[in-house]
Write a structure and sequence with these properties.
The structure holds two protein chains of two kinds. By secondary structure, chain A is of the alpha/beta class. In chain A, about 25% of the residues lie in helices and about 25% in strands. Chain A has five helices and eleven strands, in the order βαββαβαββββαβββα. Chain A has a single domain (about 1-230), classed as 3-Layer(aba) Sandwich (Rossmann fold), CATH 3.40.50. Chain B has helices spanning about 20-30, 55-70, 85-90, and strands at about 1-10, 45-50, 75-85. Chain B has a three-stranded antiparallel sheet. Chain B is elongated and about 50 Å long. Classes of the chains: A alpha/beta, B alpha+beta.
C-alpha cells in the first residue's frame, strides 16, 4: 500500500509521517510536493502537521489553494482515504473536506503535551484496530486546535458517529480540565460524511514506536492497512 | 478602469469564544480602564485593486472575503469605505 505525504512550504511533520509509514508500518511512502498535480498512485494521502505558509491569514487558509489540494480533494471525493493531522486538519477544514474550523487555543498558549483520547467510533477505516471507548495516549503540539462549529453541525457529527476521538481524563471522563485547547464538546478528531477523511489535532505518527515512548498511534495506521488493502 | 483602495475589517463572530479579545479586555481593566465592557480582536486588510466602478470594487472584495479573507464558519467581515487612491492621497 502506498501513502502519499504532502509537503507544503512550512510542513514539519511530513518526515515523521514518512517514518511512521515506512519504518514502523513497513509500507511504501512518497512525498508529494505542494505544486504538483500528481498523487503518484497513492492509496492514502496524509496532510501532515506544520505551519504551512507560516499560518498567514489563518492556519490552512493559503495551503488549501496549493495545486496538489485540487488532486487531494478529488481523491477524497472519490472515496480515497485522507489522514489530516494537526495543520492537515486545519487545511482539510479550510478546503471544505471537513466541517468546522480550528481556532486559537482558549488558553492562547501553544500546547505541547501528551493527551489522553477516547475512541468514540471504532468502526471507521482509521480506527478498526481500536475498541470503542479505548483510551489512547497521543501527543499534541499546536496553538490553534480549538475545534469550533455551530450547534447544528456538532449535533449532526455526534448523531452520525463522526466524532472519532475526544479529549478525556485518565478515567475516560470529559472535563474542561482535560480539554487542552477548549475544543467544543472536547472534540479531538472527526471524519467526513463518507468516513474516508479523518481530521485530528493529536499526532498519531509521533506515537508508533517504543523508542518514541508511545505506541497508541500505531493501530491507526494498521487499521488503514487492513481496510484499504482488503 | 480605476484603482481603488479598499479596507476590510474581519472580526470573530459574536458568540464564539474570543480568548484574545478577553485577554486584551483584562489587560485594559488592569490599566484602570474599568469602562471597557467587551473587546474583539480581528484583522484589518487593505487591498488596492483595479475596477470599473466603486460598486464593482466593492463586489469583488466581498467575493474575496467570502472565499478567502474571512472564514465563513467563525468570522464576520465589514467592508469600509472604498476610495480611489487619488482621493486617498489628498486625505
Amino acid at each position: 500500500m502506498k501513502f502519499g505525504i504532502v509537503t507544503f512550504p512550512g510542513s514539519n511533520c511530513d518526515y515523521d509521517a514518512y517514518q511512521a509509514v515506512v519504518e514502523s508500518l513497513g509500507e511504501e511512502a512518497t512525498y508529494l510536493w505542494h505544486k504538483s498535480h500528481d498523487l503518484a498512485g497513492s492509496d492514502v494521502v496524509i496532510l501532515p502537521g506544520g505551519f504551512s505558509y507560516g499560518d498567514y491569514l489563518r492556519p490552512g487558509a493559503i495551503a488549501r489553494f496549493s495545486p496538489i489540494m485540487q488532486e487531494v480533494v478529488a481523491h477524497a471525493r472519490r472515496g480515497g482515504p485522507v489522514l489530516a493531522v494537526c495543520n492537515g486538519f486545519q487545511i482539510a477544514c479550510e478546503a471544505g473536506l471537513l466541517p468546522g474550523a480550528l481556532l486559537r487555543n482558549a488558553s492562547l498558549q501553544f500546547v505541547c503535551e501528551t493527551t489522553r483520547l477516547r475512541v468514540e467510533n471504532a468502526e471507521t477505516i482509521f480506527t478498526s484496530r481500536y475498541a470503542a471507548g479505548q483510551l489512547l495516549r497521543i501527543p499534541i503540539a499546536h496553538g490553534d486546535g480549538r475545534y469550533t462549529a455551530d450547534a447544528e453541525t456538532l449535533d449532526r457529527l455526534e448523531g452520525e458517529g463522526r466524532v472519532v476521538f475526544r479529549y478525556v481524563g485518565a478515567g475516560g471522563d470529559v472535563d474542561a480540565a482535560w480539554n487542552p485547547n477548549g475544543s467544543m464538546r472536547a472534540i479531538a478528531g472527526i471524519v467526513n460524511e463518507g468516513g474516508n477523511v479523518l481530521g485530528m489535532m493529536p499526532h498519531p505518527e509521533r506515537a508508533v514506536d517504543e523508542t518514541l515512548g508511545l505506541t497508541d498511534g500505531a493501530p491507526l495506521f494498521e487499521s488503514l492497512l487492513a481496510r484499504v488493502a482488503a | 478602469m480605476n484603482r481603488y483602495r479598499v479596507a476590510v475589517h474581519i472580526v470573530p463572530r459574536r458568540g464564539i469564544l474570543d480568548p484574545q479579545g478577553k485577554a486584551v479586555a483584562d489587560a485594559l481593566h488592569a490599566l484602570g480602564f474599568a469602562s471597557v465592557q467587551d473587546v474583539h480582536v480581528g484583522r484589518h486588510v487593505v487591498l488596492e485593486l483595479d475596477a470599473d466602478s466603486e460598486e464593482s470594487a466593492r463586489r469583488d472584495v466581498r467575493t474575496m472575503c467570502e472565499r478567502l479573507l474571512a472564514n465563513p464558519v467563525t468570522e464576520d467581515f465589514e467592508i469600509e469605505d472604498v476610495v480611489a487612491p487619488a482621493a486617498a492621497a489628498r486625505a
